[in-house]
Design brief:
Blueprint: H1 15-33, H2 39-57, H3 66-97, E1 114-117, E2 123-127, H4 143-152, H5 164-176, H6 188-197, H7 204-220, H8 223-233, H9 242-250, H10 259-268, H11 281-297, H12 303-309, H13 325-340, E3 347-351, H14 355-376, E4 380-387, E5 392-396, H15 421-429, E6 438-441, E7 460-463, H16 464-469, H17 473-483, H18 485-495, H19 516-528, E8 531-532, E9 538-543, E10 548-551, E11 558-559, H20 563-578, E12 593-598, E13 604-610, E14 614-621, H21 636-648, H22 676-689
Parallel strand pairs: 1-3
Antiparallel strand pairs: 1-2, 3-9, 4-5, 4-14, 6-7, 8-11, 9-10, 12-13, 13-14
């Protein structure tokens, strides 16, 4: 194939070449048709040419009218609306696809609540994740849900889960109002959906899922059911649900809330921490007035009712203070696993606590620290009281639960000082000693250890009853060495001390730490005739429907000491009250006994005393173990004990302590004529310690 260009194929003049080509083409076409142009066609040619020129040069645009503009705007809005709808549908479908299948959607069970009550049914506290039990909406005063609807979602009864009007209103308010506190446009149903199924993340995807779930909730549940779900699960700052809030802030059930209190709680929902009535009473009162005004505006209440229920801004809102009973509730909560395993439903726990005694104990500890703490350098106190079978009637774990939840009665372990000595003396009585056995109160050293008395003085030969009454350290130490430290440890464990103890001679002086609860329980056998007890606080656990899950049965380790030994110990411990270190202890008309204790450098001051009905222990000191100034077990602890025990014995019939004989008290420094057994004992100590 010859692909070379000829002269005819070449373009010589560019534009001229094209012009001549067009010029030649016309006659060619004309000759080809061999038809003469008619008059009409001749006239049409210029018109065609003109149209061609018009197409080349561009047609003149007609001015746009208002109607035309409107039509175009509507058209493009319609187009954009379709595309926006497609886009929104796609986004909704995308985030909706990330949710589980709707067939599997189910409202999760509410976390179980533990309702803890005193022996008389008085509520102590609620425990568990929610902090309060669920309440049926029908059990609430009508104005409680109305207050929430009025301030949170006024169209709740009419919308279908999502409220476009509310969303627009919130948008306007946020744009024109205070940016510090933005208003949300979510309905109550959306909030329920968020709380039940979603995380609190503020994202577009989560809001879309929230709306979808809200629509599902509205389809599956009635308005009252949704409102009940909301009221029982919404966060009120210190717990979840209206019952938790009512108990926390007003010390009453939500079933008994007043209109003003309902308005305060409804107003809190906007910002629980900023509007809590205990921390910010003025802000809470102001918000409550807004709620009441809105309720009146919507016709839920009258204007007169709103005015009457409004809180005076100059008057503090009275809220419940976290008292010492919360120490009891904390303790009970830790015991639930051991009693019934995992708590899977709402339960009611009935305790042994006497509500009046509990509040009396709390008052006495607080007042003692308030009146004398600064002057004598102590800031904390604790009290445990129980019946002689180990049923705890009152526990105070500290001066102020709101400031410190550490339980100094149950959890803390401190040196008991001389309150531990009765276990040494029990061991001695079981090994042949008697209250009238004479022992030498004199300096001695055992394997490098040289105990001294509290006053650094020595009384010489003394009877054991006098040595215990006056808390002589050297005598207790000599007895411990003589009977064996391990035997003393065994006795303490048998009587109820559960803390680990080392068998060393210094244990006789209370150098090893124990809790006030176990120490007090350890004295119960002296009061009941020798029966060991297990300190207990729970008598019954049942479901909210009344099914019994646990019921206490009297139990314990049985007889831990013979009646004779118990009688001898009561004989000696009475002396501590009559002539010894606890002479300030008073319980008019009742035979009482007990023992004081003071640890080294006055870091702990303890007294445990008892009648035939009640055993009570009191501790004063400091959390940082700093020494006190002039505070021993026989001073302020005895004063607290005396006042409390008088309250605890009101209405009880007088009964003597078990066994024993009442020997006349003697003076410690009065020399005694030793009997044959003490003489042998003196010889033994002379051999061991050189005199």
């Amino acid at each position: 194939m010859d692909l070379r260009l000829t002269q005819d194929d070449r373009i010589a003049g560019g534009g001229k070449r094209r012009k001549s080509a067009r010029g030649k083409a016309k006659p060619k076409a004309a000759s080809k048709s061999k038809a003469k142009p008619t008059k009409s066609s001749a006239k049409a040619k210029p018109k065609t040419a003109a149209r061609g020129r018009s197409q080349k040069s561009g047609r003149k645009r007609q001015p746009l009218t208002l109607w035309g503009f409107f039509r175009k705007a509507v058209y493009w809005m319609f187009v954009l609306g379709i595309w926006a709808g497609i886009g929104v549908a796609g986004i909704v479908a995308y985030y909706g696809s990330q949710l589980p299948n709707a067939d599997s959607w189910k409202v999760p069970d509410r976390a179980p609540n533990i309702r803890i009550v005193a022996a008389d049914g008085q509520l102590i506290s609620n425990r568990g994740k929610m902090g309060g039990e669920a309440v049926a909406i029908g059990d609430l005063p009508y104005y409680v849900p109305d207050a929430v609807i009025a301030i949170e979602d006024e169209r709740f009864r009419s919308h279908w889960g999502v409220d476009p009007i509310g969303i627009l209103g919130a948008l306007v308010d946020n744009l024109t109002g205070d940016y510090k506190y933005l208003r949300g446009g979510s309905t109550l149903t959306q909030q329920v959906a968020k709380n039940l199924f979603l995380t609190p993340d503020q994202t577009i995807g989560r809001k879309i899922q929230e709306a979808l779930l809200a629509l599902w909730l509205e389809h599956e549940y009635t308005k009252d059911q949704i409102l009940e779900l909301y009221l029982n699960r919404v966060f009120f700052g210190a717990g979840y649900g209206i019952e938790s809030a009512a108990q926390r802030y007003f010390g009453k059930s939500a079933r008994n809330l007043s209109l003003g209190e309902a308005a305060i709680l409804a107003g809190m929902l906007q910002a629980p921490s900023r509007l809590s009535p205990d921390r910010h009473p003025k802000a809470a009162a102001a918000r409550a007035r807004i709620v009441l005004s809105q309720m009146a505006k919507l016709g839920f209440i009258t204007k007169d009712e709103a005015s009457a229920a409004a809180i005076d801004p100059n008057r503090n809102i009275r809220t419940r203070v976290a008292g010492a009973e919360y120490y009891v509730a904390d303790w009970v909560e830790t015991l639930m696993q051991a009693y019934i395993g995992d708590v899977k439903q709402d339960v009611v726990v009935t305790t042994t606590i006497d509500w009046d005694l509990q509040k009396q104990a709390e008052f006495l500890i607080k007042e003692m620290v308030r009146q004398n703490g600064d002057a004598h350098n102590f800031s904390q106190g604790a009290l445990v009281s129980m019946t002689t079978d180990g049923a705890v009637k009152a526990i105070v774990g500290g001066v102020d639960y709101a400031k410190s939840q550490y339980n100094r009665a149950v959890t803390a372990r401190r040196q008991p000082g001389s309150t531990f000595k009765p276990f040494v003396y029990v061991t001695a009585m079981e090994n042949g000693y008697t209250p009238d056995t004479v022992v030498d109160d004199a300096p001695f050293t055992y394997k490098g250890w040289s105990p001294e008395n509290y006053n650094h003085k020595f009384a010489g030969p003394v009877r054991l009853r006098d040595a215990l009454a006056n808390s002589l350290n050297t005598v207790a130490a000599r007895l411990c060495v003589a009977v064996g430290p391990q035997n003393v440890v065994d006795t303490a464990l048998r009587f109820g001390i559960s803390s680990p103890l080392k068998p060393v001679p210094s244990i006789a002086l209370g150098s090893q730490e124990v809790s006030l609860l176990e120490l007090t329980a350890g004295y119960a056998p002296f009061a009941n005739g020798g029966q060991g007890v297990i300190a207990h606080v729970i008598t019954r656990i049942e479901t909210s429907d009344g099914d019994v899950l646990y019921s206490s049965i009297p139990s314990g380790p049985g007889q831990v000491a013979t009646p004779q030994v118990i009688g001898e110990m009561n004989d000696m411990l009475k002396g501590a009250i009559q002539v010894g270190t606890a002479k300030k202890a008073k319980l008019p008309g009742w035979p009482i006994a007990g023992k004081t204790g003071t640890s080294q450098e006055d870091r702990d001051a303890v007294f445990v005393g008892y009648s035939s009905r009640v055993v009570t222990g009191v501790w004063l000191g400091n959390d940082d173990d700093k020494p006190m100034k002039g505070v021993g077990g026989g001073s302020y602890p005895v004063e607290v004990w005396s006042e409390f025990m008088q309250k605890a014995h009101q209405g009880l019939s007088v009964a003597d302590l078990p066994g024993g004989r009442s020997a006349p008290p003697s003076q410690v420094n009065a020399p005694q004529q030793p009997s044959e057994r003490p003489k042998t004992l003196m010889d033994l100590f002379g051999q061991l310690f050189g005199g």
